[in-house]
Write a structure and sequence with these properties.
Layout: H1 3-17, H2 36-48, H3 58-65, E1 82-85, E2 89-93, H4 94-107, E3 116-119, H5 130-140, H6 142-155, E4 158-160, H7 167-174, E5 181-184, E6 198-201, H8 204-211, E7 216-219, E8 222-229, H9 238-249, E9 257-262, H10 271-279, E10 288-290, H11 295-303, H12 307-315, E11 330-335, E12 342-344, E13 352-354, H13 355-365, E14 373-377, H14 384-399, E15 407-411, H15 415-423, H16 426-432, E16 436-437, E17 460-464, E18 480-484, H17 487-494, E19 508-509, E20 515-516, E21 578-583, H18 590-593, H19 606-609, E22 628-629, E23 636-637, H20 639-648, E24 653-657, H21 669-676, E25 681-684, H22 689-697, E26 701-705, E27 719-723, E28 734-741, E29 748-756, H23 761-769, H24 772-781
Parallel strand pairs: 2-3, 2-5, 3-4, 5-6, 8-9, 8-11, 9-10, 14-15, 14-17, 15-16, 17-18, 21-24, 24-25, 25-26
Antiparallel strand pairs: 1-7, 12-13, 19-20, 21-27, 22-23, 26-29, 27-28, 28-29
Helix pairs in contact: 2-3, 4-6, 4-8, 4-24, 9-10, 11-12, 14-16, 14-17, 21-22, 23-24
The structure holds iron/sulfur cluster.
Organism: Scutellospora calospora
Protein name: 9789_t:CDS:1
Length: 785
């Protein structure tokens, strides 16, 4: 045996000895176990070759092991080099997959090139709870589910029907594997980093690349190392690690970076706890987050019937952690023993306040000391551990005759979790205090909440254990203050109904009039008797390989699904006479650009969903949301109305934006819609990574002010032309010529400003062809795929 194999074997024996062994049946893991031998070989080519044997972080190892051709790369410069990668898997949810599938159909492929799954979770509205809401969704979104199911059958995609669970929980339970690379059309795809997967949220067009079997590109990220030491104390949970970190890094702090956790504290965390931490890494803009392989991952894999994956990962454990002396671009240390619970919000996930200071924070802002609803679960915090700890608190309260003072909702992440909670009596306990168990679906986390307890626009506060809290996110009401906290803190606080209640220090009055203080929560990491499988009817049907005759179901009269027309290719000249449709002031997330909630039902119909384009954007010229001047008519109108008017009159337009334009989600509609309505260029102070790529994929050119202050020079009526789009090259600036009407006269002044861009050679080809998909289809036709 070679020295390196002997070393790996001895590693295997030593490493495995430290794991708690759970013996359960295993399922067929052949399609979900990474090809570790090949990955290690690929990594070795790059590491020993162009990197000269330098020690690497775990994230770097996994990425370089997934290079499309490790022999073709001749240099890697972080934040510059585009890595051409080969993902192991693609996962999509029902809202984003519609457009991804419609685009994949244009590529003309017989089946997907990598294992792919679709999860029906976003289109289920929370109202009466559980199965009733699933049944309603099956009727109201029947055509969407039929479309996705038929397309899944045709292209060999695993189809998880409504009610089976939320994408990230299902992926964690079934597909994530240490050292694998996965992409998903949802920004919280990084959840799987809790199981050692590099899992990255992308737009549908990126998913189409992987599904079409062509390299998927990622600009080499920098790596933030988060060193965890100590151990979480009684009231603190993994959620608090990320709530705290979000406060430190802010919503932009992770942009262009992968967050990699290391340190002695890592071994103290449960696998699902690590998933929670990785899930919410999306909130700081990180490309993804990842943990090294730990004993809790081994236990979780075994408990979820993937013992062979656990064994293989153990064998290759030296691949699944950072090398000694690996270099991180930035290191943040968190002593978990010192960490206290945090509450983040409202309206932004990086406004982080320690629980002990939260009452002062509320008083200082003059907010009403009242909670209207507490919501726990979702893809972020619905693990067995979360639910057992929550149940321990509810049991204490029940014993003292206490009930929540406000509505209390529970969202299980999957039917496996729901069934396990039911078997263990947790659901019964939660229902005894009036908790309403919602469907295994996104519901109020994505605005799918038929809320009846408040008036329209009523100011109120809710507490959730979800991950995202931009304005209007949960109920469509921009006056709902949405705070994020651990499920334990949310639950305890619902029993007081007050925002200023601190369950660690404050008391409630029990049924006998005596003071009652919660003891700290407790619960098992994994169920002693294993997970229930959940209802068989939710199991995805076996993936078939020959479905050439399967028809994809789309009604020509549908208002929710519409076949796509390819975007026109670039005309080959500079742009002239572009109008600034809007100069946006402040935050402009993908929720502002393409709102969710009721609009989710039009995700598969580009024409109809475009009626929500930028309706949340604040116009810097008039300080109004969704109101711009139509320069052709002189009248004010909504943004989609004016954009459509310009399109009908063959006037192309641009958007001028502030920092981090497109932050938030992987929602590619935010890029598709502006392109569809006639926008070839967006100029911003900076872009959020996923959205910037989404724009490029759709043939929109994202330009960045070279001098940020030039933002102040532009306004809504300006006429724009370009110098430098012809002959566009990586790293070469583009000049923007601005023609401005002088106040009150017919004269114009004209001046130039400089912009830069991040387009690679390949991305410039997308722009030239009109979209990335046009390029794929053209290559497919010419047999280049
Ligand atoms: Fe669904 Fe919310 Fe999770 Fe997104 S973050 S997948 S909307 S539960």
């Amino acid at each position: 045996l070679s020295q390196s194999i002997k070393h790996t074997l001895s590693n295997h024996r030593n490493f495995r000895r430290s794991f708690a062994t759970i013996t359960t049946e295993s399922k067929d893991c052949s399609k979900i176990t990474p090809n570790y031998a090949k990955l290690v070989e690929n990594l070795s080519i790059v590491q020993k070759g162009i990197l000269g044997g330098q020690p690497l972080t775990l994230a770097e190892k996994i990425l370089y092991a997934h290079l499309w051709n490790p022999k073709e790369i001749d240099n890697i410069v972080k934040s510059e080099t585009y890595l051409r990668l080969k993902p192991d898997r693609v996962a999509m949810q029902d809202a984003s997959s519609q457009m991804a599938i419609l685009q994949f159909m244009l590529a003309g492929m017989p089946s997907t090139a990598v294992p792919t799954s679709i999860h029906c979770d976003h289109l289920i509205e929370a109202y009466e709870g559980g199965d009733k809401d699933v049944k309603t969704a099956e009727m109201t979104s029947k055509e969407i589910f039929d479309f996705l199911e038929s397309a899944s059958k045709k292209y060999g995609i695993e189809f998880w029907k409504p009610g089976s669970g939320i994408i990230h929980q299902i992926v964690l339970e079934n597909f994530a594997a240490p050292g694998a690379l996965m992409i998903g059309t949802d920004s919280h795809t990084p959840n799987s980093g809790g199981l050692g997967t590099i899992a990255i949220g992308v737009g549908g067009a990126d998913a189409v690349d992987a599904m079409a079997g062509i390299p998927w590109e990622l600009k080499t990220p920098k790596i933030i190392g988060v060193k965890l030491t100590g151990k979480l104390n009684e009231w603190t949970s993994p959620k608090d690690v990320i709530l705290y970190l979000a406060g430190k890094l802010t919503v932009q702090g992770g942009t262009g970076h992968i967050i990699e956790y290391f340190g002695t504290g890592v071994e103290t965390l449960s696998c699902t706890g690590m998933a929670t931490i990785c899930n919410m890494g999306a909130e700081v803009g990180a490309t993804t987050s990842v943990f090294p392989f730990t004993s809790s991952m081994y236990s979780y894999l075994s408990a979820t019937r993937r013992h062979p994956v656990a064994e293989q990962a153990t064998f290759y454990s030296s691949y699944l952690k950072a090398d000694a002396n690996a270099h991180y671009d930035n290191i943040i240390e968190i002593d978990m023993s010192e960490l206290e619970p945090h509450i983040n919000g409202p309206f932004t996930p990086d406004l982080s306040t320690p629980l002990s200071k939260f009452a002062d924070f509320i008083a200082k802002n003059g907010w009403k000391d009242e909670i209207k609803a507490g919501l726990i679960g979702s893809c972020t915090n619905s693990s067995y551990q979360d639910m057992s700890r929550v149940t321990s608190l509810v049991t204490q309260a029940l014993d003292k005759g206490l009930q929540p003072k406000v509505d209390f909702y529970i969202t299980p992440g999957s039917d496996q979790i729901r069934a396990t909670m039911e078997r263990e009596g947790q659901i019964e306990i939660l229902q005894k205090v009036g908790g309403r168990v919602l469907a295994n679906a996104c519901g109020p986390c994505i605005g799918q909440w038929k809320r009846t307890d408040i008036q329209k626009d009523e100011e109120n506060a809710i507490l959730t254990s979800y991950n995202r809290n931009f304005r209007s996110r949960n109920d469509g009401n921009s006056s709902t203050m949405n705070f994020l906290a651990s499920p334990e803190v949310v639950t305890a606080m619902t029993f007081s109904g007050k925002l200023t209640f601190n369950p660690i220090t404050d008391s409630l009055i029990d049924k006998d009039g005596k003071p009652f203080k919660f003891s700290s929560p407790s619960g098992d990491e994994l169920p002693k008797y294993g997970f229930e499988k959940g209802r068989e009817s939710y199991n995805p049907p076996p993936v078939s390989t020959d479905n050439t005759s399967t028809q994809i179901i789309i009604s020509p009269n549908s208002t929710r699904l519409q076949l796509l027309e390819p975007f026109p290719i670039w005309h080959g000249s500079e742009f002239h006479q572009l109008r600034v449709l809007i100069k946006i002031k402040g935050k402009c997330t993908t929720d502002h650009i393409s709102a969710a909630g009721p609009w989710l039902k039009f995700k598969g119909h580009l024409e109809n969903i475009s009626n929500n384009t930028l309706i949340g954007a604040l116009n810097a010229d008039n300080e109004k949301v969704n109101l711009v001047k139509n320069v052709l008519t002189g009248e004010d109108g909504t943004i989609p109305e004016v954009a459509r008017y310009y399109k009908e009159n063959n006037v192309q337009w641009i958007v001028v934006a502030d920092h981090n334009y497109g932050e938030g989600s992987a929602r590619e509609h935010a890029a598709l819609q502006v392109r569809y309505l006639g926008c070839p260029i967006i100029i911003a102070k900076s872009f959020a990574r996923i959205h910037e790529t989404n724009l490029k994929k759709q043939g929109v050119l994202p330009l960045i002010f070279k001098n940020e202050d030039d933002y102040n020079l532009l306004s809504g009526n300006d006429i724009i032309s370009t110098i430098g789009v012809v002959g566009l090259e990586p790293g070469k600036d583009v000049t923007i010529r601005i023609r401005k009407e002088k106040n009150g006269s017919k004269d114009f002044e004209e001046f130039d400003i400089l912009t830069k861009h991040t387009m690679s050679e390949n991305q410039i080809e997308w722009f030239i062809m009109g979209s990335a998909l046009n390029l794929i289809a053209s290559n497919q036709k010419s047999g280049n795929i």
